[in-house]
Amino acid sequence: MKQQVQGEGAAHGDEKGPLGFITFRSYHHQGHHIIWRARDHRKGLRPRDRLIAADETPIWQSYGYNWVMGLIFATGSFLFMLGSVMALMPEHIMKISALTANITFFAGSIPFTTAGFLQNFQAANAKVFSLEDASSGARIRPALLGWQPGSLGWLSAITQFVGTIAFNFNTFDAIKAPAGWVAQDVVIWLPGMIGSVLFLVSAYFAVMETCHAHFAFKPKEIAWWIVMVNFVGCIFFMVASTLAYVPHGQEADWIVPLSNANLWAGAFCFFVAAVLSMREARLAMSE
What we know:
Elements: E1 10-16, E2 24-29, E3 32-37, H1 38-43, H2 63-88, H3 91-94, H4 98-124, H5 131-136, H6 152-175, H7 181-211, H8 222-243, H9 255-286
Antiparallel strand pairs: 1-2, 2-3
Helix pairs in contact: 2-4, 2-9, 4-6, 6-7, 7-8, 8-9
Keywords: Membrane, Transmembrane, Transmembrane helix
Transmembrane segments: 67-89, 96-118, 186-207, 222-246, 261-278
Protein name: YrhK-like protein
């Protein structure tokens, strides 16, 4: 999984990364000190660390692309927060039915999947790190999903994207839930559980990519806040999905509200992370 720095004038320096992945490099090339970070590389952030000219930047690594992607994630998160509030409030107070809440959840899953695809497309088409590629101006043939198992960023993006699709099924099937606890667990709970597990795996891949280790404390870096807040949100989603299991027989009255409360908390974390990613794109644009 280690990628070698190639090209005339390149000198090896410090390399970091967990589990054999390389997510950070610091080295000298043709008299310049270059800092390379895997996350910044795939998202097109930090132009001063680039090896390619700004006018050669593909659209999926532009600041506008990152900002819009964050906005779409924020929209989906807000709709999940709204649906959670609807589900938590008694119908006689808000005059909103469970059907309306479930439709809102499904509406929120669409922006999640859209942004998830955009993020995966970006990761799938990030140039493999090579000074020869940069110096030759080699073009990229865009791939819809890609295959980069040696990249933590791509692994994070693809698992999240598949997880968003699982939530499409979970929220759509909940609009008109089938009768019987077994059917509800199969078509509603199981996709939600699969989506939550994939979200949690994706979030930890992102943490490792950003921390260049299994974990690191970097509160001065906005990227660290983005991935950590997102990771916490995935934990809340995991709890919510676990509690959403429909048992055979009666269940305690507090389980459903607690599940919806965790769902709201997770969506709130996703919203904050999305807004921070928009801020990150704006800051990078001004550099």
